[in-house]
Amino acid sequence: MQNTHLETGPESVVRSRPKSKPRIASTHPKILQCISICLGLLVSTLSTGVVAQERYPSRTVRIIVPWGAGTPPDVAARVVASKLPELLKQPVIVENRPGASGTIGLAEVARSPADGYTIGALHYATAAVASLYPQFKVDLVKDMTGVGQMEWGHNILVVSPSLGIKTVAELVEYAKRNPSTFASAGVGTPAHLSGVMFQRATNTEATHVPYNQFGQAVMDVSTGRVTYMVLAAPAAVPQILGGKLLALAVTGPARNSNVREVATVTELKLPSMQSRTWSGLIVRSDTPKEVVDRLSRDIASVMAMPEVRESLAKQQIEIPTETTEQFRDLIRKDVEFGANFVRVNGIKLD
Prior knowledge:
The protein is globular. It has 12 helices and 10 strands. It starts with 9 loop residues before the first helix and ends in a 6-residue tail after the last helix. It has 2 domains: about 60-150 and about 275-345, 3-Layer(aba) Sandwich (D-Maltodextrin-Binding Protein, domain 2), CATH 3.40.190.150; about 155-275, Periplasmic binding protein-like II (D-Maltodextrin-Binding Protein, domain 2). The strands form 3 sheets. Strands 2-1-3-10-4 form a 5-stranded mixed β-sheet. The protein has a 3-stranded antiparallel β-sheet with strand order 8-5-9. It has helices at about 10-55, 70-80, 85-90, 105-110, 125-130, 170-175, 190-200, 215-220, 235-240, 290-305, 305-315, 325-345, and strands at about 60-65, 90-95, 120-125, 145-155, 155-160, 180-185, 205-210, 230, 245-250, 275-285. The longest helix has about 45 residues, at about 10-55. The chain is α/β, with parallel strands linked by helices. Residues about 1-25 and about 45-50 have low confidence and may be disordered.
């Protein structure tokens, strides 16, 4: 048999060239086709990633409220959560994670992915007393960012009608002559801080009585077992209108529309007692900007809805008008104020 592939003459060389060209030519389309497919897959993958980011949200969003059910931040969060799905086009659920002045729930927010699917409800009290909890490693200014304020609140100084005290001046006189107490739902809560403010403003002394059960604290004040309490308006107004508590002063900048006869602390020459509580929604600060902007925009839209404003007003909650940037500045200021207040007044956990 002749081995034609070993031929070396000119004629064989000429014959071999036409045979090699088709092989080379037939390879090019395959290579190009392979490259085209690979590029297509790459572009498709990149495009899918971009779309995934742009599609936020694509699943359920949860709001962690680090306070108990029925508290002002819980009430406000549930009202907002009832309307957010209309804009986000996804379910929004509220989960309560109370404890340690809100730091337990917010620690969970900090541990969750920075993707906008876990939102925290921050209350003034947590911002003010975060420094009390060394185990709470979250910097509320650096590690978190506000996406919308939900409410303003104020407190009302109340006593039992049975004590026979009708005015703040009479309460001051009573506290200077008798061993006195004031109630709160725990160290670092708004009622605790406001009670300390009252002592400093009036140069009086009273023993702080923290309660694990908020309802029991209100009951003991109403019966006179505890001398006074600086109680959040949503909880105080029904008790006042029902005759179980007597209001002496409002800590907000204006009188409460439901108890208009009660003067503000500023009117009573106690301006250092003026205070407003607040709550709002926050996410991790490393959440993508487009997600933060989306949440901020949608929360602002919800807060502008007439039905939302009406619902919050019925709960004795004041409607905020501040921008998202103003809310973030409010967080910063109250974190600084709270750390200083805790230090100056020697407030410590028991």
